[in-house]
TrEMBL record:
CDD domains: PBP2_Bug_TTT. It comes from Cupriavidus necator (Alcaligenes eutrophus). This is ABC transporter substrate-binding protein. Belongs to the UPF0065 (bug) family. InterPro entries: BUG (IPR005064), Bug_dom1 (IPR042100). Keywords: Signal. It comes from the Bacteria. SUPFAM superfamilies: Periplasmic binding protein-like II. Residues 1-26 form the signal peptide. It holds the Pfam family TctC.
Length: 331
């Protein structure tokens, strides 16, 4: 009898070791998970695009899991406050991160004091939306496409400035990349926010700028500003008449996106369940309509490995541009 007990104990230890060495998170956890509310951290302010998408996703995910998913906004420090809260959270499936590419891969590419590595410290669950940033101009600028803008700026070197929502933003990096490709000479103006940039452009103070795909839609519809290019290779759903950078001869595959992550070490079965539910939710008509209205597209369903590869590739792309353009931010 004692030998049987010892054998069972030995088998138990072996199984625990194969499952990761810790019986506290092995096997049984997914069986009872979730048995309490899940907290979804958003490293952006309430009302932002990330917040709107997170709340839509949280409601649907909660319904699918039979447990409430509570959105918590933790903005600040280019997304580092909220992101670090998740990186340091217990890997028990009850703390998730809902973020965007600007915070997850652009900020780590340019901020010297960044305290996390997105390829090591964030466990990808699912990419939930994708879309490019917009190259816009004042309505009185005599250009209707990227080629005409390049010709105008090159004919007047140093006379034009372009604006974005921050130093080291994806818009800032995109234009520096374009300047390298075309030989344009322009200086950068970093605004405190996209609304401030749009107000300056609408008034004619700023002539050229990069913005997110949502904020400028009312001004574009009123024709007070004009969009001449969308980053990436897929046209924006609300601006189907505007060609992409790729269509205009400048291949750039990296785009903006929203995505969900878990702390490193989270049980693989929990992550797989979350990925499965999120990917199902993405196919719902209500969420598709929300994405379209926000000028984003639901991306093709990707495996966790595919999303992990996107994070790593995008981080390297932005790092290379930042290095080539000598852009580093002290945060």
């Amino acid at each position: 009898m004692a030998s049987v007990s010892r054998l069972l104990a030995s088998l138990s230890l072996t199984v625990a070791a194969l499952c990761g060495g810790s019986s506290s998170f092995a096997g049984p956890l997914i069986g009872k998970w979730p048995d309490r509310p899940i907290h979804m951290i958003v490293p952006a302010s309430a009302g932002s695009g990330s917040d709107v998408m997170a709340r839509a996703m949280a409601q649907r995910l909660g319904n699918a899991l039979g447990q409430s998913v509570v959105v918590e906004n933790k903005p600040g420090a280019s997304g580092m406050i909220g992101t670090n809260a998740v990186v340091k959270a217990a890997p028990d499936g009850y703390t998730l991160l809902y973020t965007n590419a600007s915070f997850a891969v652009v900020a780590p590419a340019v901020i010297r004091s960044i305290t996390f590595d997105p390829t090591r410290d964030l466990l990808p669950i699912a990419q939930t939306a994708a879309g490019g940033v917009l190259l816009i101009v004042n309505k009185d600028l005599p250009v209707t496409n990227l080629r005409e803008l390049v010709e105008l700026v090159k004919a007047n070197p140093g006379q034009y400035t372009y604006g974005t929502w921050a130093n080291g933003s994806s818009g800032n990096l995109m234009m520096e990349w374009l300047k390298t490709k075309t030989g344009m000479k322009m200086s950068h103006v970093a605004y405190r926010s996209v609304p401030q940039l749009l107000a300056e452009m609408s008034a004619g103070v700023l002539k050229i700028g990069w913005v997110d795909p949502v904020a400028p839609l009312p001004l574009l519809r009123s024709e007070r500003i004009r969009c001449i290019a969308v980053s990436g290779n897929v046209r924006a759903p609300q601006l189907l008449d505007v060609p992409t950078l790729g269509e205009q001869g400048f291949q750039f595959d990296t785009v903006g996106w929203f995505g969900m992550f878990a702390p490193p070490g989270t049980d693989a079965a929990i992550v797989a369940r979350l990925a499965d539910e999120v990917n199902k939710i993405q196919g719902s008509e209500g969420l598709k309509e929300l994405m379209k209205n926000m000028n984003f597209e639901p991306p093709p369903i990707k495996t966790q490995k595919q999303f992990r590869d996107i994070v790593a590739t995008d981080l390297n792309v932005w790092k290379q541009i930042a290095t080539n353009s000598d852009i580093k931010i002290e945060n």
